[in-house]
């Protein structure tokens, strides 16, 4: 068996899978003629041909990655702070100035209207008050008398009360010593008169016997009365 005859069909099958550039151009020209004849039968002109895109030899992954990077660059440039703000042009400034002037004019008109209404209201109120004053008799307002000042008790009143309390107190004189010397006795009448006062004002001290040298204590009644006086004086002071 001849080996060339065996390989001939296989070679023809493989070569039929590939197309040359001339065959591609011929097929394109035939397609154009068919479209032109079809539009001529309808009576219309054929649409303009779209420009053919150049053949991209990159893989699909490379083309998608390039598109992704391009979109990312566009997003970054859009979100930059410097690109988010821009100045106003002349038309925008003029428009904003006109709106501000209109707003101020409306505010001024509103204030003038409110002032006019307040003035008219005050005039009506004054006219009504004058008419009521002419019709009604004059009213005499009663002047309230000032309340009399309260008297503050002075310290002299306290002293008088203390004296009145002391009037009822009876102070007993201490008995004389039986063996008292002539020196202890009052020599004059004035000294005798002053002796009771001193005994009433000062607490009684124990009497000393000149002969024996022993002290005699004051009676208990005198000391009790003096204690009561001191207690009353302390209560009055408090």
Automatic annotation (TrEMBL):
Domain FAM192A/Fyv6 N-terminal: 18-122
Disordered: region residues: 1-31, 99-238
Sequence ranges of Low complexity compositional bias: 136-145, 177-187, 198-207
InterPro entries on file: FAM192A (IPR039845), FAM192A/Fyv6_N (IPR019331)
Primary residence: nucleus
Source organism, top-level taxon: Eukaryota
Subcellular location: Nucleus
One Gene Ontology cellular component: nucleus
Keywords on record: Nucleus
Compositional bias annotation for Basic and acidic residues: 99-126, 153-164, 227-238
Biased composition (Polar residues): 1-24
Record protein name field: FAM192A/Fyv6 N-terminal domain-containing protein
Organism: Cryptococcus neoformans Tu259-1
